[in-house]
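Researcher: Go.
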Amino acid sequence: MYDISIIGAGVVGCNIARELSKYDLKISLIEKSYDVSNGASKANSGIVHGGYAAKHGTLKSKFNVLGNKMYEKLNQELNFGYRKTGGLVIGFEEDDLQKIKELYENGLKNNVENIKIIERKQILDIEPNINPKVKYALYSEDVGITSPYEFTIALAENAVENGVELYLNSQVKDIKKEKQYFEIYFNDEMIRTKYIINAAGINSDKIAKMVNANNFKIIPKKGQYIIFEKGTGKKFNNVIFQVPTKKGKGVLVTSTYHGNLMIGPNSEETDDREDISTDIETLKNIIKTAKMSYPDLNMKKAIRTYSGLRASSDKKDFIIEESKIKNFINVSGIESPGLTSSPAIAIEIKNILSKIGLNLIKKEKFSKYRKPIIIQKELRDEEVKKLLNEEGPKKIICRCERVYQEEIVDALTRNIEVKTLDSVKRRTRAGMGKCQGSFCSSRVSELIKKYKGVDPETYKNQWELLKELKKLT
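Model: Structure:
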């Protein structure tokens, strides 16, 4: 019998698992995929938002501001990759200035600090590569960037280290409510639990429906992105937003945490909860819009496209509450700024559990630190060439991202089962470079075979689509 079962091992579910693992509880974390962070948590912008955009009075605004302040400490403990960069919401016309002023006023209402409106000269001083036609911007110092999948993986590893039991490849098929507990059915198993936290992302309405706790509907929204070669992100110091529209915050231009330029996303409603494809026409529109911020965008440097599905709800806000079914808590509709808000949402869930009767007793021993997998290194090309044929832990497996063999082995031998190229890639960056795994995938596969005894799935690339994008100027 578990005290708590969390359904969904994305960034929200893993934050909750890690927060609750500080207490003397028996906890399960159930995930339908082969790994944690395999939904929206691996396919988003990785932006730690400032808190000025979410409508005042909403849960989004409350938890965005609270969550933003938690990242620095979490990164010190979990080593997932975060830095404060600042952000600019830029405008080109007088109408844009009015919208920027509205964002500024909304930010003040939300108790956002370190925001101001600046004009062309200041903007170009901060960002010399931005479109010189820019006239106005909202400048928010507290915007940051993070590696969202590394954050989720770090949370999960730390939660497991502190006693959380992780069930992967475990899609929930049914839930039955008994008098004192729930029965959760997945695969050929059934577990009993006193409390359920539904953090199942785009499928959270389906999970809620299993116990008639579905007073909301999820409307998935698809967003597509383009990633460029490592180092291209150095063109910008800040995250560059455009004035938001009814569809969202719009197409942004930013560096990723690891230095790749990234543009996107668009926003389109979809009925297909499995469709994470990209298409040339949508990507062309993203490029066109991004060029308003960065006219010198070089498509020949593009290396990958991807898309993610956001769990937008018909409530137009986060849903964080005990449902009408006692001890069944919905954490749903967590779209942007969900990544930023997720650490604060976890504390809110802890508080809800306490209010509805769960006795929370802190553990005498809680390990709050998690060591990184990625080893920071500066290697010259000639050093890399030499280490490609080295034997032992310092052998270079991925030449684009300079990944040592010991980093791959570390990823494969931690407390979460890793058996695919994709899982290794998100932990070590092997396969994320310019060649997109064409060199290192066979080397990584050999290590997976050696340490896990399985033949990982064949690496898939996107060269045909990228050929089309590279023709654009």
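Model: The chain has a mean pLDDT of 95.
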